[in-house]
Amino acid sequence: MAAKQTFEKAMQRLENIVQELETGDLPLEKAMEKFEEGVRLSRFCSQKLDETEQKITLLMQDEAGEIREKPFEAQ
C-alpha cells in the first residue's frame, strides 16, 4: 500500500529531482522520466497550496461574509 502523499513529502521529492537533474549525469530517457515526475509533483503542490488558500479565506470571513485582510503579526 502506497503512503499518502503530503505536501511536505512532495516538496522534498521535487527538491531531490531538481538536484538530480542539475548534475547532468542522467541519460536523456531517465532525465525525461524525472522531469515528468517533477511536473506531476509541482502540480500536486500547487493544488495543495490553492486548497489551503481557499480554506484560509473561508476562515477569514466575518459574520457578513466580508473578507478582511489583516497584517500577519508574529508572536
Give the helix/strand class: mainly alpha
Strand content: under 5%
The major sheet is characterized as: none
Distance between the termini: 41 Å
Characterization of this structure:
With 75 residues, the chain is mostly helical. It has a domain at 8-59. 67% of the residues lie in helices and 0% in strands. It is built from two helices and no strands. α1 (7-23) runs antiparallel to α2. The protein is elongated, with a radius of gyration of 18 Å. The mean pLDDT is 86.
Please give a quick description of this structure.
67% of the residues lie in helices and 0% in strands.
Summarize the topology.
Blueprint (H helix, E strand, L loop, with lengths): L6 H17 L4 H33 L15
Helix pairs in contact: 1-2
What structural keywords apply?
exonuclease, elongated, 67% helix, Exodeoxyribonuclease 7 small subunit, cytoplasm, 0% strand, mainly alpha, exodeoxyribonuclease VII activity, single chain, 75 residues
